[in-house]
Design goal:
heterodimer, A: four-stranded antiparallel sheet, two-stranded antiparallel ribbon, B: mainly alpha, 2 domains, 7 strands, about 55% helix, elongated, transmembrane helix (chain B), membrane (chain B), PqiA-like (chain B), transmembrane (chain B), Paraquat-inducible protein A (chain B)
Chain lengths: ~210, ~210
């Protein structure tokens, strides 16, 4: 596909007084509300839309607190009941020598959620400051956050399978803890925060400088 | 661009990620068109993609039925044994206040993936056969694209793997036919999603709606 103006700085739909559709790529007149090709709703790349990102991000952060405090799993073996939090589960895996799986769970349930909060906040702040360099690096960061976010749900599924499978009456049984709900909510809210972020804003900030 | 051009917006496409304008040209099958600025894939058409996507979605749908109906996992420890189906994993949270999470898990691992296969078949089967698009085909395909991040079948199967490692020391686990059906479904879905080129699908739907 040939670029419309390769020698000059890239011309964007917004700069040309048009609105590009983020679903199908169709270029529409500025005042159009609905895309002519796919019928989807058109939204101009307006920094005001960042408010939604912040709102979802705050909801995700709030839900992440009880996810760490309450137990994720209740295990009872021969009448003894123990409760495992997110961190507790990782520690137990390591103490059993399951380093590979322990590492996966640690990365999925602790490292990725925290890194996501920081990354989304950084992206939302950076598009307000025109002097932030590294458009491409920020785009890669956004794509990584968007791709990896849903994988955090793995913890909830592990709890679901363990609770369904390990129900051997008195000998051993595993039941879900309250943290499963808040963890699932936290992951969903963070996904929504990433989806509300409009990547076109990354490039917008620099255009205002060049203009 | 030089002066006031009278280019039809329908001949341009805007990059969905960075808004850069490109002249819309026919991309030959098996080649990839990328955005000049951010490198996002704009179009990657494949020969016979519509037929492939429809067939793969139908396959995945049948496998999903098998995955829900057949036994999934069986746990054996001494004289005790416990069977768990995919439905049991969904119902793991059904007690007390966690019931909404059961519903959410049902949507994430069974209902949304199945609905997405159905939506793709509905929107793309007429395209594969060279027919006029079905009623509301655009809205249905747009919906299938929007729910894509929430269809988490592949994350569930990795969660199963993690859960199996966790109980491996505790008891013996037999893998039922549903486990293999679900694994196959994940592979089929990944191949299917590889065939979907959004721009090509939207343009085909648009062109076929004209006459």
């Amino acid at each position: 596909m040939e670029n419309a103006g390769r020698t000059q700085p890239v011309l964007t739909a917004q700069a040309a007084g048009l609105v590009g559709c983020r679903a199908c790529g169709r270029v529409n007149p500025q005042r159009a509300k609905v895309c002519a090709r796919c019928g989807g709703e058109l939204c101009p790349n307006d920094p005001a839309a960042l408010q939604r990102v912040w709102a979802w991000l705050a909801a995700g952060l709030i839900a992440y607190v009880p996810a760490n405090i309450y137990p994720m799993l209740r295990t009872s073996t021969l009448g003894r009941t123990s409760e495992n939090t997110l961190i507790g589960g990782v520690v137990e895996l390591f103490s059993h020598g399951a380093y590979g799986v322990g590492l996966i769970v640690f990365v999925a349930s602790i490292v990725i959620p925290v890194a996501k909060f920081i990354a989304i906040a950084y992206l939302a702040v950076s598009v307000r400051r025109p002097s932030v360099p590294g458009d491409h690096k920020r785009l890669v960061l956004f794509e990584v956050v968007e791709f990896i976010g849903r994988w955090s749900m793995i913890d909830v599924f592990v709890v679901a399978i363990l609770s369904a499978l390990v129900q051997l009456d008195f000998a051993a049984s595993i039941n879900p803890g309250a943290a499963a709900v808040s963890f699932a909510l936290s992951v969903a809210f963070t996904m929504l925060a990433a989806q509300s972020f409009d990547p076109r804003l990354i490039w917008n900030a620099n255009e205002r400088v060049h203009a | 661009m030089s002066g006031q051009t009278t280019i039809d917006p329908g001949e341009l496409i805007a990059c969905p990620v960075c808004d850069a304008l490109h002249r819309d040209q026919t991309v030959p099958p098996h080649s990839t068109a990328r955005c000049v600025r951010c490198g996002t894939v704009l179009a990657a058409p494949r020969k016979g993609a519509m037929t492939q996507i429809t067939m793969l979605a139908a396959t995945a749908l049948i496998l999903m039925v098998a995955a829900v109906v057949f036994p999934f996992l069986e746990l054996q420890a001494r004289s005790l044994s416990q069977k768990a189906s995919v439905l049991d994993a969904v119902l793991a949270f059904s007690q007390g206040l966690m019931a909404p999470l059961s519903l959410a898990v049902a949507f994430l691992i069974v209902l949304l993936p199945a609905a997405r296969y159905l939506a793709l078949i509905y929107a793309l089967a007429p395209m594969a056969l060279g027919w006029h698009p079905a009623r509301h085909a655009k809205a249905v395909f747009g919906w299938a694209e929007r729910i894509k991040p929430w269809a988490m079948a592949e994350i569930f199967i990795i969660g199963v793997a993690v859960a199996l490692v966790k109980v491996a020391g505790l008891a013996r686990v037999e893998l039922g036919p549903a486990f293999w059906a679900f694994s196959a479904l994940v592979v089929v879905t990944i191949i299917q999603d590889n065939y979907i080129c959004r721009l090509t699908v939207w343009k085909t739907l648009e062109e076929r709606s004209r006459f």
